[in-house]
Amino acid sequence: MLRWLGMGVILFSCSSIGVTAAQKMKKRIQNLYDLREGMMLLQGEIRYAKATLPEAFEHAGAHAAPSCKAFFEAVGTQMERLETRSAKEVLVRCAKEELSGPGFLREDLERLERLGEQLGYLDQEMQIKGLEFYIRQQQGVCEEAEREYREKARLYRYMGIIGGLFLVIVLA
Predict the structure, then answer these.
(1) Considering the chain, what is the average pLDDT of its residues?
(2) For the chain, is the Cβ count within 10 Å smaller at the N or the C terminus?
(3) Percentage with pLDDT > 70 across the chain
């Protein structure tokens, strides 16, 4: 009886690993879309409200999705305090503090760093163009992440189940 219970726990654990891997991919997709939406809010604040960069980040943070809210608010606050020399430094620091986790990959944060190079020292029109480029790029990344999810999510789940069955058979 205890042996069957142990095999059940092994099978369940391995299946859970596969499901968790698929859920991480889905969370990344949602976070990428949330970040894209936040950047669209930021672009609107700069373009239509004629807000300064710190104000635009704070206003975008007020309306951003929960996964990115802290990032936008932190960038706005740090830019307003003028603690660092450039927007790039602020974006990089805040991205590492607020966005580094299971929902974003390193290349997602690197794209933010490249955006930081275009913000802060250019005129308003160039900032808007930089944000437009980032938003288009982000849309492509979102679509690629969705395609990858469709291809790999089922595979991860099945590999978890098959790996669990394999371990149960080997240990039985």
Answers:
(1) 89
(2) N
(3) 97
Rounded distance between C-alpha atoms, residue 40 and residue 60, angstroms = 9
> What count of other Cβ atoms lies within 10 Å of the Cβ of residue 138?
22
Regarding pTM above 0.90, the answer is: no
Rounded Cα distance between 68 and 12, Å, is 33
DSSP assignment string, 59-73: HHHHHS-HHHHHHHH
Q: Is a pLDDT exceeding 70 seen at residue 20?
A: yes
Q: Are 167 and 15 in contact (CB under 8 A)?
A: no
d(CA 78, CA 64) in angstroms, rounded, equals 18
Concatenating the DSSP letter of every residue in 92-120 gives HHHIIIII-STT--HHHHHHHHHHHHHSS
